Amino acid sequence: MKPQTNHKNKTNRQHYNVFWRWHFYAGIILAPILLMLAITGATYLFRGNIEQWLYQDYTEVAAEGGQREASAITGAAMEAYPDGTVARYQPPSEEGETAEVGITNASGEGMTVFVNPYNLESTGTLLDQNRIMDRVEELHGELMAGTVGDRIVETAACWTIFMLVSGLYLWWPSRHQMASRKSFLPSTSTNAREKRKRWHSVPAFWISGGLAFFLLTGMLWTGFWGNGIQQLTTSQGIGYPPSIWVGDAPVSDQVTEETGDVSWAAEQMPVPESYAANNYEQISIDRVVNEAEQTGVASGYDVFYPSSDEGVYTVSAFPDQAQGEVTMHMNQYTGSVLADYRWEQYPPLAKVMAMGITIHKGLQFGIWNQLAGLLICLGLIGMIVSGIRLWWTRRPEGKLGAPKSMSSWRFRGFVGLVIGFGVFFPLFGLSVLLIYAVDRLIIRNNRRLRSLFHAS
Question: Using one digit for the tens of pLDDT, what is the confidence trace for 20-47?
Fold first, then answer.
């Protein structure tokens, strides 16, 4: 009986070390990226508050007299940039706020002109490239490195979810320990090393569910996994119900995300075309705004202008609460509504995704949503700092300090987990193959690297 017990303990220890080794190296490699994501994510949660403070001289005016029509407001903006082209219009959200006119200037730069809707005076102009929170969003989503950065962030998110799972395996108490509340408290041990370990693992356990939620909902924006989820939902017939179209659904190579900033649920929706049978002229922006307001579109919406002769006006309401989302396409010559996609028509999966995104951005439930998101971000920062400290205080000289490598593939549970992650998150699977190749072809063939990484 005793040899069997010893064998079982040895096997359990080997399994533990396999998880520990992968968890350890993933944490060391990803720490800088995760720290950046946590800091920028915490900042972005308060985007509305920050921009209100930064640009209050642009956005706040005295409500004196009646508001002018949209055509007069856009005309006033164009007087300052006669060589530019209007691309977007956002009416004032409430009394005492300016309207926003998005213009592409003669140099091709995008800018926003803020116009007082009461006297048609401009309160200021901002180049899109100078909007601070847009740069924070770009850093958070793609490291300011375009497609390459997007793929790096997506891969880091996949590995972070893997680290959460492996970390839970490493922390999981025995049945006897589960019965004690001390297992769920960070600083109950008198041993210094054990205390540092618990300050890393126990808080991680408490925020793991919220962090996994933020990672998964954040990945909906990624160009590979997120785009794949969108295409999958559409191809399975759960993307857009026929009721959103006036007439037959269009056969189009253009999707709605190419027309402007719209809700996640509408990004892959085909864009219909405008036809002018009798040489109609383009309708006024006033008519588009009236149509949006008469159909109950939430305040704060944007109108994106047609980009071609066959293009459409796109009305996009992307408010704090997902229930107010609207994406509407209008014929630029007749003003007829060609498509109208709202929360009420979202399939169940699209509602889940839309709600998840507004929660991720700290919008859905107001200040409590922001504070909960901030707690998750601070918790992630704490996990990173405590993990680095735990490693730094126990690392042996000349080595990184991970357990000695062994064949992970003999541990069927671990193999199943890695394969499952690789199937569900393809970039994770690709990175595992890359790591395996580097390990076999480079690390194990170099004595110094073999010693550094404690490779067998």
Answer: 888 988 998 899 999 999 999 999 999 9
Higher pLDDT, 186 or 265: 265
Can you tell me the distance from the alpha carbon of 353 to that of 233, in angstroms, rounded to the nearest whole number? 11
Element (H, E) at 435: helix 426-441
Q: Which tokens in the block code for residue 230? A: 């969108």
Asked if 265 and 346 touch (Cβ cutoff 8 Å), the reply is yes
The C-alpha atoms of residue 61 and residue 64 are separated, in whole angstroms, by 9
Instruction: Identify the pLDDT of residue 1.
Output: 47
Please check the confidence at residue 315 and state whether its pLDDT lies above 90.
yes
Residue 450: is it exposed, middle or buried by C-beta count within 10 angstroms (0-12/13-18/19+)?
middle
| DSSP class per residue in 61-80 | ----SPPPPHHHHHHHHHHH
The C-alpha angle with vertex 116 and arms to 111 and 122, in degrees rounded to 5, equals 45
- Which tens digit of pLDDT belongs to each residue from 250-273? 767 788 899 989 988 888 888 998
Whole-angstrom distance, CA of residue 20 vs CA of residue 167: 8
* Contact status, residue 87 vs residue 110, Cβ threshold 8 Å: yes
- Give pTM, 2 decimals: 0.89
439: which 2 tokens?
Answer: 């390990």
3-class SS at 123?
strand
Helix (H) or strand (E) holding 330: strand 326-331
Task: Map tokens 């010893």 to a residue.
Answer: 6
Does 185 score more than 80 pLDDT? no
Please determine, for residue 326, whether its predicted confidence score (pLDDT) is greater than 90.
yes
- Nearest-CA neighbor of 111 among 160, 152, 58, 47? 58
Record the tokens describing residue 27, joined without a space: 């944490």
pLDDT at 301 over 90: yes
Which structure tokens are listed for 260?
Answer: 């402007």
**Residue 309 gets which letter from DSSP?**
T
Q: Name, in order, each residue with C-beta under 8 angstroms of 177's C-beta and a sequence gap of 6 or more.
A: 183
Contacts of 39 (CB under 8 A, 6+ apart): 377, 381
Residue 252 Cα distances to 216, 234, 315, angstroms? 30, 14, 19
Length of the chain: 456
Which of 343, 387, 394 has the alpha carbon at shortest distance from 241? 343
Beta partners for residue 314, in sequence order: 304, 329
Alpha carbon of residue 204 to chain centroid:
21
Residue-wise pLDDT for 366-387, tens only, equals 999 999 999 999 999 999 999 9
140 phi/psi in degrees, rounded to 5: -65, -40
